[in-house]
Amino acid sequence: MFFSRVGCLSMLRRTVRSAAAVLAGGVLLWSVVPAMAEDQAPAQQQGQGQGDKKDGDQKAAEQAKAEALEAAKAIAEYKEAEAKLSSSAGAPECVWTGRRIVNLLWRDDMDTARRYIDLYDRFGCSSEHLKFAFRCVIEQGPIDMKAADRLASRVHDCWIAPQETTTTSNQSTLSTTRTGTIPN
Predict the structure, then answer these.
(1) For residue 70, with 0-12 CB atoms within 10 Å meaning exposed, 13-18 middle and 19 or more buried, which class applies?
(2) pLDDT above 70: residue 180
(3) How far is CA 161 from the centre of its chain?
(4) CA-CA distance, 107 to 94, in Å (whole number)?
(5) For 108-136, what is each residue's pLDDT tens digit?
(6) CA distance 13 to 184
(7) Closest to 133 (Cα-Cα) out of 99, 154, 159
(8) What is the domain partition of the chain in residue ranges?
(9) How far apart are CA 52 and CA 116, in angstroms?
């Protein structure tokens, strides 16, 4: 069989053109299929997902309500401290930094606590109240390091009333201790 050069070139051109046309068609089809799937997906989800949408809205509303309660609780804690403590220890900036310092000291983060103490002093807050609150937290005994909410609650209670919390915790500890020898 004899192939002419001209015949080979024309056949090669047709093959390349055909391959280019198939490739262009594939690219076009590839870009259209996902777009069509996206258009059909919302229509399918509307029929199936009415309950899902309501559940999502309900969860979002519950989360917003929980965040609002958390914010209201924080504001109430600052107002309680302001009402029960002297002006320097009850000021919101003193309550915030003081509770943070006590928490850091409890967790043995002395460097960070020292930086906050500088800020605490700059606000003109009572250093005596800081000492009393930390003493109160210490005298109540050990606490689980993983229970951050318990530590925060203890620090808040000790910040509001350091002498009262210490005496009540000592009384409850004394009433529950046993007399006798300690086992080895």
Answers:
(1) exposed
(2) no
(3) 28
(4) 20
(5) 999 999 999 999 999 998 889 999 999 99
(6) 96
(7) 159
(8) 72-170
(9) 47
